[in-house]
């Protein structure tokens, strides 16, 4: 076996192991994490179609509302700015959805400036500081929680996590798990620089 071939085999093996380890972390964290009673619940933004939350965002909101109703937080922070093709901010669409489900408007805090998960957490932390909140349950899709937890930790958010898996959109959920591998690597690389 030539030196180049040995190097290629070694590189492919290391890359394969790295992919498997990262995917294991993502899946295990999403499945194993449990919410804890906190000062607030942060629902991370996701796609809005015009003014209607996407199925993924509805799933996140339903979980956030379920946790709120069970006493896991006294407020819900809805976090997400206005993206391309969205008529209103994700946060406003989320607020309207929660109101339609009977939630008290005074218990919904809107953070509508964010355009990324990191911005969601930075801006939500500012709200937490202003409100005197010390802890949060962070809600997203299960595949997203590992990266969200790394970002929350970087912002000194004392967080627990609760994830959703929308089984009627299994293909999109699985692709989310795959997309998170380079996203987690990117986070680690940028953190080192």
UniProtKB/TrEMBL annotation:
Parts of the chain that traverse the membrane: none
Annotated ranges, domain DUF218: 39-157
InterPro entries from the UniProt entry: Cell_Envelope_Assoc, DUF218, Rossmann-like_a/b/a_fold
Matches recorded under Pfam families: DUF218
Name the record gives this protein: YdcF family protein
Native species: Clostridium aromativorans
């Amino acid at each position: 076996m030539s030196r180049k071939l040995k190097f290629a085999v070694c590189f492919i093996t290391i890359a394969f192991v790295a992919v498997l380890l990262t995917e294991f972390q993502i899946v295990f964290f999403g499945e194993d994490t449990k919410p804890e009673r906190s000062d607030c619940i942060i629902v991370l933004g996701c796609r809005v179609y015009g003014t209607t939350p996407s199925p993924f965002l509805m799933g996140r909101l339903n979980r956030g509302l379920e946790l709120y109703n069970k006493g896991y937080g006294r407020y819900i922070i809805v976090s997400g700015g206005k993206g391309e093709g969205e008529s209103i901010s994700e946060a406003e669409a989320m607020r309207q959805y929660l109101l339609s489900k009977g939630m008290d408007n005074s218990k919904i805090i809107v953070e509508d400036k964010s355009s990324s998960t990191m911005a969601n957490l930075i801006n939500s932390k500012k709200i937490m500081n202003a409100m005197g909140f010390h802890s949060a349950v962070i809600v997203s899709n299960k595949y997203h929680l590992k990266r969200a937890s790394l970002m929350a930790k970087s912002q000194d958010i004392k967080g627990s996590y609760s994830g959703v898996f929308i089984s009627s959109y299994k293909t999109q959920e699985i692709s989310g798990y795959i997309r998170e591998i380079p996203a987690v690597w990117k986070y680690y690389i940028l953190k080192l620089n």
